[in-house]
Design goal:
Length: 438
């Protein structure tokens, strides 16, 4: 990108941020000002949770008062990590409700498995906490809507961990696309192409010492523990995860929807094919998927978003393991969120591009700054809802193996009771974390 273009982009971004903050403050959505320092609680400091803990702890204006995990080993490691960075050990809580009860805590960082994202976020908002929650924000369509309602009724800032939204080179590329550099974008192709490992087949067994498995399952229906369920393998099980479409795919689907220019809306139609073509293991989600979403924009105008997933691919395609191709009437852009982008004009003529890496710290800083200003964060819970729902819609269509018509306003399928049964999930009867209104 030319230096003049970059300066213009940064000025426009600053102006938009200032305007957004002013609008939200005047609309009564301003968050309460935090103490001199942001006091945070970390819920689920495992793999990504540890990265978030270290990132937030690295800010001088952040203190981490408490950490919570249902695994004693991870909890002890989190305490040690915070003490090593801040010089002071946080409180260790096995039950994150103790963090929510602490009036001194301004915000919580939630990096639990997917099935806990919405229940924990809703509880935190209702307790007056701002929330940074890992992607995908929701485990299912209905929970996503309830998260938005919780954030708005409590006037809380809720940022979702799709950090591409705060990464400069990604914003540069989207700015070019939305500015008309490749004409009207009619189709975006998203790919998730990488080699995953088999999770094998394991019988039920006793949980390991130090793990509160009942608390880990939480509001989901109780199942037997098995060795290929924890840690991180939960994402391949219907009851707890959203497959790789919700794991890695949601990042690129989010960018695809952003560049397609369809606004904050759902598609009207979704068609999908896929299944387990490669792995012979306990995984319940597909290793292979092709999903096509169609957006009806009125006056007969339509746009298309295509998602491709191959979890058995030991190669990089079009320069990126995970990427987005934006196809306009006057050119196209290839974007890799972790590497960079390149714009091609008609007849494949290279025009410009930019390199860069994902910026987790910038995304975390954006969350903190929005708590101060009252502005909506870059990956606001409502913005993210329309991207997370692409994962849910795609997984439902793949699971059922047929084309589906979707009512964007009602967030329900048209004339399909079986599909509508998957808009929500089943919960453990009487559990304290079951969201109201499910």
């Amino acid at each position: 990108m030319k230096r003049t273009d970059r300066r213009r982009f940064l000025k426009q971004s600053a102006a938009l941020a200032t305007g957004a903050a002013a609008w939200h403050i005047s609309s009564g959505l301003r968050a309460q000002s935090p103490n001199e320092k942001f006091i945070l609680g970390i819920i689920g400091p495992g793999g990504m949770g540890t990265s978030l803990l270290k990132s937030f702890a690295g800010f001088q204006d952040v203190d981490i008062a408490s950490v919570s995990d249902v695994d004693e080993r991870r909890l002890a490691a989190a305490v040690k990590n915070v003490e090593g960075i801040k010089g002071k050990a946080p409180r260790a809580e096995g039950d994150f409700r103790r963090i929510l009860e602490d009036k001194a805590v301004d915000a919580v960082v939630i990096a639990t498995p997917d099935h806990w994202h919405a229940p924990a976020t809703i509880l935190a908002c209702d307790a007056g906490k701002h929330v940074y929650v890992e992607k995908p924000g929701s485990h299912n369509i209905r929970e996503g809507r309830l998260m938005i309602e919780a954030a708005r009724r409590n006037k809380r800032v809720v940022q979702v961990g799709t950090q591409s939204r705060s990464t400069v080179h990604v914003r540069d590329a989207i700015d070019k696309i939305r500015g008309g550099a490749i004409g009207e974008v009619l189709t975006v192709r998203v790919w998730n192409s990488q080699l995953r490992a088999s999770i094998g087949k394991r019988p039920p067994s006793q949980p390991p010492p130090g793990l509160d498995f009942d608390a880990w399952v939480g509001p989901a229906p109780m199942v037997a523990y098995r060795a290929n369920l924890l840690p991180h393998v939960w994402r391949w099980w219907f009851a707890f995860g959203t497959g790789d479409m919700g794991n890695d795919g949601v990042h690129d689907l989010d960018l695809g929807r952003w560049g397609l220019g369809v606004g904050d809306r759902h598609p009207n139609r979704v068609c999908a094919l896929g299944g387990k073509y490669f792995f012979d293991d306990d995984q319940q989600f597909p290793d292979t998927q092709t999903v096509v979403f169609e957006y009806g924009l009125g006056d007969g105008q339509r746009k298309q978003l295509i998602y491709e997933q191959r979890l058995w691919a030991p190669y990089v395609q079009e320069g990126h393991e995970n990427g987005d191709g934006y196809y306009g009437t006057k050119g196209y852009v290839i974007l890799g969120k972790g590497e960079g982008w390149e714009l091609f004009a008609e007849r494949n003529k290279p025009v410009c591009g930019g390199a860069g890496k994902l910026d987790l710290a910038a995304h975390n800083r954006n969350f903190l700054d929005c708590i101060k200003t009252g502005a909506r964060p870059n990956a606001d819970v409502e913005v993210h809802h329309y991207s997370a729902c692409l994962c849910h819609l795609g997984n439902i269509a793949t699971r059922l193996g047929r084309a589906l018509q979707f009512d964007p306003a009602q967030e329900r399928f048209i004339g399909d009771d079986e599909a509508n049964g998957l808009v929500r999930r089943e919960y453990r009867a009487g559990h304290w974390a079951v969201p109201r209104g499910v």
